Amino acid sequence: MTAAYIVEAVRTAGGRRKGALSGVHPVDLGATVLDALVARSGIDPARIEDVIMGCVTQAGEQSFAFGRNCILGSSLPDSIPGVTIDRQCGSSQQAVQFAAQAVVSGMQDVVIAAGTESMTRVPMFSNTTLHMKAGIGEGPFPASILNRYGVAQFSQFTGAQMIADKYGFSRDDMDRFALDSHRKAAAAIEAGAFRDEIVPVQTADGLFAQDEGVRFDATLEKIGSLDPIVEGGTITAANASQMTDGSSGVIVVNERALKALNLTPIARIHHASVSAGDPVIMLEEPIAATRKALAKAGMTLADIDLYEVNEAFASVPMAWLKALDADPAKLNVNGGAIALGHPLGASGTKLMTTMIHALKARGGRYGLQTMCEGGGISNVTIVEVL
User: Fold this and answer.
1) Which residues does the UniProt record annotate as the domain Thiolase C-terminal (predicted)?
2) Annotated catalytic residue, options 270, 271, 342, 357
3) pTM higher than 0.90
4) Tell me, what's the pLDDT at 1?
5) At what angle do helices 171-190 and 315-324 cross, to 10 degrees?
6) 70 carries an active-site annotation
7) Would you say the C-alpha torsion 229, 372, 353, 357 has a positive or negative sign?
8) 89 catalytic, yes or no?
9) Residue ranges of the alpha helices (H) in 152-198?
10) Torsion angles phi and psi, residue 314, rounded to 5
């Protein structure tokens, strides 16, 4: 069976909400990544057959065929189609899976999988409240669904707190995990670990090329000073991911394209899958998804050199580590979303880019990436660095 290969992977640095990237239109963020992928790979842009763009909040500047708009804002020819997908936080990770399926089937040979999110210019949940402005409708969840699951509303914050309670994590446990994320990210920046994966973005203030959310002076005292998000709970903004602006992407090709275009792959997609579970606790699914993926791939965690488990909330990767008895030394080695930010639809290919570069730097072979997603969904991708 033919395989799917990644020949280039880049990301922008993460901009804080209302920070350095707030003046950049999300289309221009996406276009910057598309241009960088083509330039760094040396591929004739006319050979690209599709762009699959992950984006969660498809409203305002991220609406109206957003993926196609990113192409029109780039230097790519306007003959290239584009599509926008929403699998919540796993949107661009799913874009990679769709791209891999396309090239492995032979229906397409060269596909860009990417993601973009401006959480400054298109606020989170802004697309779910349009019915309120219109004065009609019930929002995304009708009474039939809410009654079925016995909830007044689905909430990622409640889900994160439920996980913390289920696995017995204290506020101090999660705050220490958050501090470690900042320390790892700060060390990675100081060591130049992100230098090759970050494409600079032109802003009104110059080129932006360093993750803005990392707190080099983070302390347990500062992290512990924030109030809980859920009343009486232990989840806070400090032990959760940062709202972030950013973009990322990878080029996925098959063997036919490798030979025809004389390309050198940097990684092979060894496995890709998606599963779903309880939509109430919601964010626990990466555990079951990882077990299913490893079984299907005929692997164990011992075969994996690095893990990227998205730090939507500290309780999520902590529960993943505990349930799977995984090695914490292999987890998010350059920090995670608590420090580096979580630009929703861009996070899938962002984590993949960082994981591939980290594996190369450490001489590792296999990396496993997973993340929690709204609705109780989780993607798992295993890559082999070449």
Assistant:
1) 263-384
2) 342
3) yes
4) 55
5) 100
6) no
7) positive
8) yes
9) 156-167, 171-190
10) -55, -35
